[in-house]
Amino acid sequence: MNATMSAGEFWSLLTHMEWADAVTWKTAIGLAGARQDAQIADRLYHLHSVHWAYLQVWRGEPLEIPERATIGDLPALLAWARPYYPGLRAFAGALDDASLARPVTLPWADELVKRFGSAAPATLAETILQVAMHTAYHRGQIATRLRELGGEPQITDFIMWIWMRRPEADWPSA
User: Fold this and answer.
1) Where are the domains of the chain?
2) Rg of the chain over all Cα atoms, to the nearest angstrom
3) 113 or 141: which carries more pLDDT confidence?
4) For residue 160, what is the enclosing H or E element?
5) Phi, psi values for residue 72, rounded to 5°
6) Options 1.20.120.450, 1.10.460.10, 3.30.250.10, 3.40.50.980; which CATH number does 7-163 get?
7) Measured between alpha carbons, how far is 42 from 128 in angstroms, rounded to an integer?
8) N or C terminus: which one in the chain shows less Cβ crowding within 10 Å?
9) How far apart are the C-alpha atoms of 64 and 149, rounded to whole Å?
10) What's the pLDDT score for residue 1?
């Protein structure tokens, strides 16, 4: 089976990702224990570092990801993460079905070859899907940690977003 997604379907996937990330951030910023928790901060930093890395690769820019220690507390991390989404929307808004088939060269592919023995070429569509799936994985880890800290994370499933009539992201203030 060879199923492909259209540019419009990728737009929905990325719009959901922003909404779900904002929901996760609202819980993290709103929970006193989470604001001071190194695991939450480190996981959010990793999630957003990957976001930024892929967007920079897609746009043909050099990788410029600040070290975690230079960013500071959770509100500062949120302030660093947020500009990604307008950049992503601008990038994704220009996608068409043909552009999704273009190959993407990942600057870390040589490291993957060393570790796993190969790194087959990937298309833009495949790397966009990777970002959305990677983010969902880490949102789940963050939700688990938020529960351990006494919080109650909201459901961020794609289908929930559909049932809620595809709401826009509602970001917390830092």
Assistant:
1) 7-163
2) 17
3) 141
4) helix 158-163
5) 105, -145
6) 1.20.120.450
7) 22
8) N
9) 32
10) 40
Q: How do residues 82-120 score in pLDDT, each as one tens digit?
A: 999 999 999 999 999 899 999 999 999 889 889 999 888
Mean pLDDT in residue range 135-161: 97
**Number of C-beta neighbours around residue 6 at 10 A:** 13
Q: For 68-85, write each residue's pLDDT tens digit.
A: 999 999 999 999 999 999
77-86 long-range Cβ contacts below 8 angstroms, 24+ apart: 77/41, 77/44, 77/45, 77/48, 78/25, 78/29, 78/171, 78/172, 78/174, 79/174, 80/48, 81/25, 81/44, 81/48, 81/51, 82/171, 84/48, 84/51, 84/52, 84/55, 85/18, 85/21, 85/169
Which residue reads 């957003």 in tokens? Answer: 48
